[in-house]
Amino acid sequence: MSFTSTGPSPLAAYGWDETLENDFTPHRAAGLVPARVIAVDRGLCDVVTETGPLRAGTGPVASPDPAAAPCTGDWAALRPAGAQAGGPVVAELLPRRTAIVRSTVSRESRGQVLAANVDTVAIAVSLADHLDLGRVERLLALAWESGARPVVVLTKADSLPGTAEAEAAVAAAAPGVDVVACSAATGDGVDAVAAVLDGTVVLLGPSGAGKSTLGNALLGAETLATGAVRERDGKGRHTTVRRDLLPLPGGGVLIDTPGLRRVGLWDAAEGLQQTFAEIEELAAACRFGDCAHGGEPGCAVLAAVQDGTLPARRLESYRRLLRENAWIAARSDARLRAEQRDRWKAVTKAQRQMYRDRGRDR
């Protein structure tokens, strides 16, 4: 239980703890109050505070960089209404313990935070659709990189006569990760899913994967909007249009997210190492330290593919995601160099103008 100076904090149900309370001491001294961002919408955000929910401005923390902008799950220092002209405003964002970051949809060399301060990433995979193990591995890399713990939830289990084969296939693509099958429609397996979730939980997956239906089953109420998938292709519409944070009845909070049409990696080297842990372990036995596993002599990874220990599909997925991550990293480095060059140009231009002005004053 987290405490304030007057007793237990109502924010404890949203994840507020002793460490956050201690770190917040200087903010309280400045007249600010703690708040958690539960949704962001058009320059404003919904937050929950020790006295209840409210809507706040984000002017002081607004940023053109999507990775630095306020996000659902953020902890914030809020300046209350009355302490200034106008309503309450987020004065500062607290450092994020974890953050799920993907490359922006526009493929710019910037990252976009999908959710902050997450403890468990529940990756929803529909058993009513084609099982795309490559997508599962991509989402796992994103989850591992965030610092949170991933869990794979096989949804719509009632649409498949037996789930053992699908569970085995996903487990092979998700070493060290809990894989649980359930049907939110019938309630089967929902308790098993709840048992492997902890703290702040975010649901990730494509439209039609059953995230919102699963979320409602976990919340115990029809809180999240749901929609049917199209019969011709099994795809769903975006019934969830923003990220909302809601308290779970058994403790912790849930963040539902819109369906992800595309999930680009963003600086996910460590996430890839954990997602493909067995390949990383095999690579340590390669003859050459810089082995690319493409035909070099003494390659332990290729030997594992040849003897059937490692599926060829798995190695190809690893290579593909490594290439993508390296490409994004290169673009990011180029952007940072360009921004630094532009800053120096601006400084130089200002200095030259200053010298010209001084010359005219003489």
UniProtKB/TrEMBL annotation:
Its cofactor is Zn(2+). Transmembrane segments: none annotated. The keyword Zinc applies. PROSITE patterns: ENGC_GTPASE (PS50936), G_CP (PS51721). Keywords: Cytoplasm, GTP-binding, Hydrolase, Metal-binding, Nucleotide-binding, Ribosome biogenesis, RNA-binding, rRNA-binding, Zinc. It is found in: Cytoplasm. SUPFAM superfamilies: P-loop containing nucleoside triphosphate hydrolases (SSF52540). Residues 108-263 form the CP-type G domain. Its EC number is 3.6.1.-. Zn(2+) binds at residues 286, 291, 293, 299. Binds 1 zinc ion per subunit. GTP binds at residues 155-158, 205-213. InterPro entries: G_CP_dom, P-loop_NTPase, Ribosome_biogen_GTPase_RsgA, RsgA_GTPase_dom. It comes from the Bacteria. Residues 116-261 form the EngC GTPase domain. PANTHER family: SMALL RIBOSOMAL SUBUNIT BIOGENESIS GTPASE RSGA. Monomer. Associates with 30S ribosomal subunit, binds 16S rRNA. One of several proteins that assist in the late maturation steps of the functional core of the 30S ribosomal subunit. Helps release RbfA from mature subunits. May play a role in the assembly of ribosomal proteins into the subunit. Circularly permuted GTPase that catalyzes slow GTP hydrolysis, GTPase activity is stimulated by the 30S ribosomal subunit. Belongs to the TRAFAC class YlqF/YawG GTPase family. RsgA subfamily. This is Small ribosomal subunit biogenesis GTPase RsgA. The lineage of its organism: Bacteria, Bacillati, Actinomycetota, Actinomycetes, Streptosporangiales.
